[in-house]
Amino acid sequence: MRDPLLIRPYTPPARQGSILFFIQDIQRTTGISISYSSNFLHLNKKIQLTGTEHTTGAVLNTILQGTGIQAAPVNGKIFLLRESSQTQYYTISGFVKEINSHEIIIGASIYDPVTRKGTVSNAYGFYSLQVPDSCNSIVFSHIGYETVIQALPPPDEGQLDIHMTARNQLQTVIVSGENDSVTLQAGYINMPVGYVSNFPALLGEKDVLKSLQLYPGTGSSLESSSNLLIRGGGADQNLYLLDGVPLYHTGHLFGLFSIFNGDAVKDVSLYKDAFPARYGGRLSSVVDIRTKDGNMKEWHGKGTFSPVSASAELEGPIVRDKSAISLSIRRSLVDVLYGKRFHDRYGKYSLYDVNFKLNQVINSKNRLYLSFYKGQDNMFIPGDNVILPLQDDYKFAWSNITTALKWTRVINPRMFSNTTATYSRFYNLFSQNSVVPLSEIDSIYVNGKGVSRIRDIAIHNETEYAINSDHRLSFGGGYTYHNFAPTAYRTNVHAGDATQREAPKYYMSEFTAYAEDELSLLNDRLIIRPGLHFGALAQSSSFYPSLQPRVMVRWNMPHMQYVQASFAQMTQFLHQLTTPVINLPTDLWVPSTENIKPERAFSYSLSYQKQWANNWRFNANLYYKQLQNIVTTNTVLNIFDNSDLWEKKVISGNGYNYGSELLLEKTQGKFTGIFSYTLSWAWRKFARINSGQMFPYKEDRRHNLSLAVKYRVKPRWNLSASWKFASGAPFTLPAQIFPDFDWGRNIYGYLDGRYQPNGGNVINYLPYIAKLNNYRLHAVHHLDIGTTIYLGKGNHFRHIITGGVYNVYSRSNPFIVSYDQFTLFTYNDFYPLQLYQYSLFKTLPYLSYTFKF
């Protein structure tokens, strides 16, 4: 028999309301006292009655349904009691932001001290975490920010946004949010842009990609190049994303500087293995770069000047706390500071970058981002320059344009979605003006022009769903429309007809879809992240689908240690064709076709990490990568080649990359530093090259070592130094050379512009190459030192002076190496092979000045 208190007649005044509303109305209408605890009862939760409830018990049963709480009458009162051994959970979510600018913070840790469960903020600063009703506070932490212990508000009060203060910030000299601490896990590096200023840089140009080269498994193709080589892979095997837009070219001045302006960049993430399922399209790595969103509170600006370039940054709110912009501009100064006489003798070079971003808050759950980037390089080298006797005039021009419209939405406290529409274009032009002498009084003037272009239009979605604190799903997909025009060639001959070969255009559709599940088991000691990425490339003559499984397993051990193993299959539908010996600025990006299959990689890795409470950490990694359908060409293929023949010159093969990596790093304190070492091998095998034998790839570097230290002498004065060492690159030398008597191929009998066509007795020679990459260049190493001084008081104007010396002991490192024979041929002469090394920089001081407001 039911208790009279529960069958007492009661008709609610409304069918909709909160739990608290109905409890208070029952007490007021019936006079029954109801006792409860707000610690585990979500009083603000909205309830919809069915309309059939006409007793106190019926109403209480409906409003308490699914809460694990029962109505128990005791001594004339009704107690709302939680069921035995049942804990109630609810979800908190929101955004983690920097306290002054309201810039979102990526990778912040959110931790529940009761359950010892946690999560991290995603690339948009959003987090979602389930907590028990017994939890009173949550800990928010980040290596670059002061820890926040936040008391939990009552449930159903909406999202909980957290604002964090930069750790150890110097109020008089450092803009809030510029921290210099790197988040590091096996196969993953997250680097805030403030870290770029920690160590010396070539000519004072701070470069995010060169900063990544301090860590193991990373390197560069040439001395001082920003071109990343990851674990023996080629430069084209890296996926570069700028605010979600893929880039096909990332270098200024043939790779000496990257296109990523440090003033515009906020955050850089590098994945070397354990690739999340949302990424695809490349074999070696993912470099995900996010630009600044703009200060939502107040206007700030920055300007930097050096003998090489000038840059400016401006950011601030359009409507306070609602919309903001960020604008960064960088331009080279070489062509401005040096006059016409210098340009006529040596050539002319210029570059610029423009980054723009609009950040619009629609409401607490919806936000729009509009980002734009354009970068341009122009170079002119006259034929009569005093450095390289080229005889012909050359002009290079290449540019990137990207645009992204991004919509982020909090669907509910557990689900977050990001939808992005993008456009990108890469354009490369190479022209040559030649004078061909016919006689002492007559010549032909020839102008050749080659163009290569890529255009992409894409849309994709990424969704994250937190089932609970131990189980998270992510899924999404996208579509990309590719328009490739690899080579277009035009020649104009004075007093003759123009020759034009248009590039065949390739119109293709690329489809992607992915799903990933992250499970935390055994009280967070075991983390498993299986995933599946699907990609497909479709065009009129071919269709290539690809299923790419991924899995990561991490075992967390006591004393801040863990072991991680991962496997990832990656597929690359696009290829960059280069000469087998050197990288040319006219390399081609081409798609997979009916005759050229996609490249594939199967990556395995095993890692160990140990961290100490005194901010030291140690990493050790082993990796192995098997490559299939890797493409190359056995000729110098560039945008001057006949556009309908390039596909026939492509050769496919296989390869292997394997090695080990060590890292020891001090992350906090007056003294910080990095020691990294990589031992690696990179092999390739092509049926039609090197007699089908395996040979070391041109990016094979046996040993790669970096040592970088920084010491804070005073709060406003830092000293830094770095030393880098890399084994010499493989290089091909002929086993023999012999004269070429084929006068039909060598009509005038001269090798190059150093010989006159009337020489008569000079003939060409042919090399006999027995084996590819049979020698190695000299090792590359250099010591750099630098210092940074902060000046200015107050919060209005600050000044930074940075100076240093690149290559202190003036090492002549190989930049370009060639062999030739420059002696006139006679039957009685002996001609030894002559090897020439060209070095780019010796000892080079630099100085730059920055002001901020």
TrEMBL record:
Keywords, ordered alphabetically: Cell outer membrane, Membrane, Receptor, Signal, Transmembrane, Transmembrane beta strand, Transport
Signal peptide residue numbers: none
Domain of life per record: Bacteria
GO function term, MF aspect, one: siderophore uptake transmembrane transporter activity
Principal location listed in the UniProt entry: membrane
Matching InterPro entries: Beta-barrel_TonB_sf, CarboxyPept-like_regulatory, Plug_dom, Plug_dom_sf, TonB-dep_rcpt-like
Ranges where the TonB-dependent receptor plug domain occurs: 207-282
Membrane topology: Multi-pass membrane protein
Recorded GO CC terms: cell outer membrane
SUPFAM superfamilies: Carboxypeptidase regulatory domain-like, Porins
Pfam families the record matches: CarbopepD_reg_2, Plug
Cellular compartment(s): Cell outer membrane
Example of a GO biological process term: siderophore transmembrane transport
Protein name per Swiss-Prot or TrEMBL: TonB-dependent receptor
